[in-house]
Amino acid sequence: MSKTMTQQSYDKILEAAKILCEYYENNACENCQVTKLTDDAYLDAIEEGIIEDA
User: Fold this and answer.
1) Does the chain have fewer CB atoms within 10 Å around its N or its C terminus?
2) pTM assigned to the model
C-alpha cells in the first residue's frame, strides 16, 4: 500500500538516506538499496508536484 508523498516525508527520506550512507560509508551507490529507494521517492515527489523534474 503506497502512501501519498509529502514534502515532509520526502525531506525525511533524504535525511535518512544521508545518515545511512554516512554511517556505513557506502561507496557502491549504483548497487545500494538506499539509492534505489530515494530514486523511487524522487519520482513520487515529482508525481505529487512537490518537486519539479530537473
Assistant:
1) N
2) 0.73
